[in-house]
Amino acid sequence: xxxxxxxxxxxxxxxxxxxxxxxxxxxxxxxxxxxxxxxxxxxxxxxxxxxxxxxxxxxxxxxxxxxxxxxxxxxxxxxxxxxxxxxxxxxxxxxxxxxxxxxxxxxxxxxxxxxxxxxxxxxxxxxxxxxxxxxxxxxxxxxxxx
Length: 146
Prior knowledge:
Structural class: mainly beta
Largest sheet: 6 strands, antiparallel, barrel
Low-confidence stretches: 142-146
Helix content: under 10%
Radius of gyration: 18 Å
Shape: elongated
Order of helices and strands: HEEEEEEEEEE
Strand order of the largest sheet: 1-4-7-10-9-8
Distance between the termini: 61 Å
Mean pLDDT: 82
Number of strands: 10
């Protein structure tokens, strides 16, 4: 007898306060000079998915660690462990894709807007999965300097 999880999946999906997330393939190529603005712009990212999703801290805020970078005597950037929740119908994000929150649900955390996270591993899959969980690391310094 097979266990049908579709009813549980619908219940769990209805309990999550979904934001709107975008999963994108990083743009390749060099920045291009825009003579109108006087700034260099990167090529547009290719969106793989834009729809329901939730970004959450994975663990505790004290769980942020810093890793050394070759040829530097200090740890360059912290590793911020986050997780992305998406419905099972959403495509599986691949390693190094970029995730951003493009809209938050009513009463949601506006600090999510303007940040980016890098996918650490493909979304988790399993026999008893009712929502897709994907490991993320926050990309540092994504906002423009004042």
